[in-house]
Amino acid sequence: MTTIPLPPVSRVGILAKSNLHAATTHLVEISDWLSGRGVTSVFETDTASLLTPSPTRVVLDKPSLARSVDMVLVLGGDGTLLAMADCIGEVGSDIPILGVNFGSLGFLTEVTLPELYRSLETALTGRAVVEERLMLRSSTTRQGTVFAEAISLNDTVITKTARSRLIDLSVYVGDEFVTRVKADGLIVATPTGSTAYNLAAGGPIVQPSVDALVLTPIAPHTLTNRPIVIPGSSAVRVVPHMEPRDEVFVTFDGQQGFQLLAGDEVAVRRASRPMRLIKPSTRSYFEILRTKLKWGEW
Predict the structure, then answer these.
(1) What's the CATH number where 95 sits?
(2) Per-residue pLDDT of the chain (298 residues; tens, 9 = 90+)
(3) Are 92 and 160 found together in one domain?
(4) Are residues 70 and 31 in the same domain?
(5) Is 253 part of the annotated catalytic residue set?
């Protein structure tokens, strides 16, 4: 993770969590606030549906928005930000995201509503800190050709369905065989994703500034199959060994995915572009950890 200066901002994309009607008043106020500073608001299609229709409002679908604005303001939770980050990566953009949480503090949407305008002001005046977060590009090969590709910020997960038995996965890093895992699945996580599914599965927390990937078995049959931290430059390949009754899926940030077939292989490596996250200067990563994980509370 590196920090970079924020370039000039003249168009701000605005995305709210689906059906977040509590955001409606804020959306109007944000648009007026930006307009007063000579900045154009560009609303994502579903977000615009929360507002009274206006012929002068700029409305674009998510991919088009990602291509045409200087930064994105996300109102919601971490899941909403993940979906936008993945979309930005898919269209080959690297615009930064400012995440505002409508609930409790998020790992990614760490700006609270009272901090909203102060954080926006800091971003528009170029004083905000922007962190670059490692993203993943996953390719699924089927019958010798690439069947599907996906971008993810948190993780790529190969897992079984609830009614399936343990699945059998061969794991490679580069050209080297690492292990054969019998488990409910395997998580390939970024440092950003280390506090998501990886943490729930017993994987380590990795500070976002560490250039690394984490391989975490999900409920492994052999207790000696432990999480492994590898360099962020590594190429990971996962080969499922499937019986006819096995149902195995690959998912990306929990946002999209599909069922794997016998003979499929999933390759995961660093994406060519990072995700850029606008950080408020008042809160450190460890403060977020203490708050979210309730460290020190008795």
Answers:
(1) 3.40.50.10330
(2) 455 667 789 999 999 999 999 999 999 999 999 999 999 999 999 999 999 999 999 999 999 999 999 999 999 999 999 999 999 999 999 899 999 998 777 889 988 899 999 999 999 988 888 999 999 999 999 999 999 999 999 999 999 887 778 899 999 999 999 999 999 999 999 999 999 999 999 999 999 999 999 999 999 998 888 999 999 999 999 999 988 888 999 999 999 999 999 999 999 999 999 999 998 767 888 988 998 888 877 6
(3) no
(4) yes
(5) no
- Structure token pair of residue 77: 């939770």
Q: Is residue 297 part of a domain?
A: no
Residues 203 and 77 in one domain: no
Q: Which residues lie closer than 8 Å to 187 by C-beta, 6 or more apart?
A: 155, 156, 157, 193, 197, 198, 201, 203, 214, 215, 216, 217, 218
From the candidates 78, 86, 155, 184, give the one annotated as an active-site residue: 78
Domain extent, residue 29, equals 3-134+274-292
pTM score above 0.90: yes
The continuous run of DSSP H or E covering 66 comes out as helix 62-68
Alpha-carbon gap, residue 215 to 198, rounded angstroms:
9
CATH at 256: 2.60.200.30
